[in-house]
Fold this protein.
Amino acid sequence: MSENKRVDKPTGTETVGHEWDGIEELDTPMPRWWLWTLYATIIWAIGYVILYPAIPMIHSASEGLLGWSSRGEYAQAVSARERELEPIRQALVSTDIRKLHGSPELMQQAVEGGRSAFKVHCVQCHGSGAAGSAGYPNLNDDDWLWGGDLEAIEYTLIHGIRNPDHEQTRFSQMPAFGRDGILQPTEIQDLVSHVRVLAGREKQSAAATRGAMLFEANCAICHGSDGTGDRTQGAPNLTDAISLYGLDRASLTNTITNSRYGVMPRWGQRLDSATIRMLAAYVYSLGGGEKLPALEATATTPVESDGDEQS
Amino acid sequence: MSSPDEVLDPELKLYESRKSVFPKAVNGKFRRLKWVIMAITLAIYYITPWIRWDRGPYAPDQAVLVDLANRRFYMFGIEIWPHEFYYVAGMLVMAGIGLFLVTSAVGRAWCGYSCPQTVWTDLFQHVERAIDGDRNAQFKLQDAPWGPKKIGKRLAKWSVWLFIAFWTGGAWIMYFADAPTLAVDFWTGEAAFVAYATVGVLTLTTFIFGGFMREQVCIYMCPWPRIQTAMMDEKSLTVTYKEWRGEPRGSVKKAEAQPGSFGDCIDCNQCVAVCPTGIDIREGPQIGCITCALCIDACDSVMEKVNRPRGLIDYATLEDAELEKAGKAHNPVLKTLFRPRTLLYFSIWGAIGLAMLFAVGNRTRIDISANHDRNPVYVQLADGHVRNSYTINLRNMENRPRDMVIGMTELKGAVMWSNAGSRDGAGKTLVTKVPADSVARLRLYVAAPGEGPVREDFALTVTAADDAEANDVDEVFFERPETGE
């Protein structure tokens, strides 16, 4: 049909030569700008293929002259950020943790760093808000098993709790009074009553009085005669409102019968000392931090500003 | 049936290309008024950022400053924070209603005298006349082939335009930073990129809008001419050609030859020649007319020459035009001006203005916003108390540091302390210093006895230590664990 091609007069354009019921189609060429754009993109694509990873191979894509990769870019960004933070980490490591309070700005930076690290390493057990759960201490409160000042927290972090292969780990073990046959089930019930009296959950009773004698004989050596515990061996205070495993009869019976053996990894072998120090500062900052026994903390943590202030 | 060849007219185009407008210079009272208004508006534009205003050591001393970087808007004695942006919205509403008011009373006075597009185009046209000569010379030059003379004139004109355009963009950025500092930084290459980019864009738009697009901006781009058709009524002032007086047109000679058969219009076309938008006002009111009144000046001077009364083209309302046509006197000016419509616009405009003034005068420059922290929602303390924590934002909107007292409404046995203190020093209130003109954030702990409702509403308050009148309150709640085992 191409022999039917003719030039359309009004437009001056050749027709394609087809004709349907009197309707013809103009063979209008592609607009120049469109073609040039197409050629430009082709040239650009050739350059791109040479410079950037483009051609899929068996294990990876062709490398590209520029050697760029998204992973490489990410790694660069991370290391750039790390270099940026290095001075803070250095300052943190070289500062005596007992004197961290003296530099509020560094303390604040440590808290913020710890906030991030906590979300990576700690939330699995302690929860994203550090509120813990049964068996995992709430780090927001003011009750500490092993001590709540900066130094004690850092020690716990470095050496962990009940790491069998580590000398300096926080270690103690309560006997499984029931399972090992040290106490009879009825005696354990009496003991439960006494512990609940200590915690203020139950009124004094005959059972509790019997339990008090058992407590003196079996428990006081660690928890103290008055039940206030002993931090040097992680023996919890039984008289306060907080308990790790619950103060209801069933939980207490279970605790005394089978004992408990909570562990925490020793982060000293996994994290660098700056990160650990940041974590210590963060945990300390959650609201229950205790002052160092020797040093009076200077309470001058400044209010944060959102950057609105005029300088 | 017609063949396709006949259907398409090769001369027919979808778009009409612009006909060049070369308005002729004119003198007269409205031209003088335009000069004065141009001087005032340009002076306001260029001088405002350089006015100083002492706000003390903690705030900038520029009278009008839109401080985007620090999110503050200063206008003489008023400082606006981002959350008070409704004041700006209020001003925009006032500007809108102000346009309604002006339009219903005096027609498109904004378009004719004070719109930046009009002012800058006017300025550019003066430059054009100074370099190329008046209307006829400009026509000639446009048609002349490109030669040294034309190139020289064009380069001269465009350079002056670019110069004006550059200073227009340059003045604009002064509103957004300390003007003297920015002016120095700009020339030493130390200003922010956005400053140069803004100047570049505004130079370009001023150059193009003022030099080349001109009346096309008014006719095709601007929405206001469309809106004004709804805003104007038969009592609004508009430039009117009194066709009952002017028609039929005839030259002075013809009129002398046949007295009585011609109107006052001698068809000299001066009204068309001076028109900056290139329209013929004798065709009646139209969208291209920005009511700049230059045709009135032109016509008046011609009428004076041919000894006919002035005002063949004049400001008149449609109603007055009808009255005049019927040979009756105009409505009293005051009655036309103060009619229910204008009075209503004015009262709305005034009411918004007064309300804003009242609000600005009474606003507190202190603010608390408290958020109950929810992870965890509460913390059981060893002594049986329960602790909740709150993230507090304290705004000090004054230009001086202030001691602020945080307090709380009734929450039995409760004490508070912040992340800077400890529970040992906790009390019913807490004093903290907030830097000048900034927001301070702190974590607030509140501990209360464990016995009580699971959720208890109370409020946190803030009061300036030096002024009990300056205070604010935010409702929060206190949560406790559910009791029972």
Observations:
- Residues 295-311 of chain A have pLDDT under 50 and may be disordered.
- The beta strands of chain A are 7-8, 13-20, 23-26, 304-305.
- The longest strand of chain A covers residues 13-20.
- Residues 70-94 of chain A form the longest helix (25 residues).
